[in-house]
Specification:
The chain is an alpha/beta fold. Helices cover about 30% and strands about 15% of the residues. It has four helices and six strands; from the N terminus they run H-E-E-H-E-E-E-H-E-H. A six-stranded mixed sheet has the order 1-2-6-5-3-4. Strand 5, helix 3 and strand 6 form a beta-alpha-beta unit. The protein is globular. About 30% of the residues are buried.
């Protein structure tokens, strides 16, 4: 019994140590990360989830509209172009590119709201929609800053 408790204690200690470690791998302009993303199939088509490192590479040579869809406002990632509530994105299409093939990258606090907004845009015929997987939480966990207005 004591041996079993000891093994459980060691396992939990290792697990706790692994969970408390902070990953700070960051892409730099000298070492860009290949952006492949993860395709997410939804009704009407698909969008692409990207990691923090992939988004950093994309931001280094920004060729997209960058939209914060989180409500309520909790900060922005640098170079954000627009803030549109995720549940109202279909009511603000005039702020987005008229060309439905234009690249649009969405993010929110955790990734949930941007996924909903991405699915909405795909359903409306947008074909080049991207979403930051894990949102600002993942961004901050990578040691990157979130700006206040």
């Amino acid at each position: 019994m004591i041996r079993r408790i000891g093994i459980i204690f060691i396992f939990l200690s290792i697990l706790l140590a692994a969970c408390s470690g902070k990953t700070t791998q960051q892409a730099s302009p000298a070492s860009p990360v290949a952006v492949t993303g993860e395709r997410v199939i939804v009704a009407g088509g698909s969008y692409t989830d990207v990691s923090v490192n992939e988004l950093q590479s994309m931001l280094a040579k920004k060729d997209f509209v960058f939209v914060n869809v989180h409500i309520p406002y909790e900060g922005d990632i640098a170079n954000t172009d627009l803030s549109i509530p995720y549940d109202e994105i279909d009511q603000h299409l005039e702020q987005l590119p008229a060309n439905k093939d234009a690249k649009i990258v969405l993010y929110c606090r955790s990734g949930r709201m941007s996924s909903i907004a991405a699915e909405t845009l795909v359903g409306l015929g947008y074909t080049n929609v991207w979403s930051l997987k894990g949102g600002m939480v993942a961004w901050e966990q990578a040691g990157l800053p979130v700006e206040e207005r």
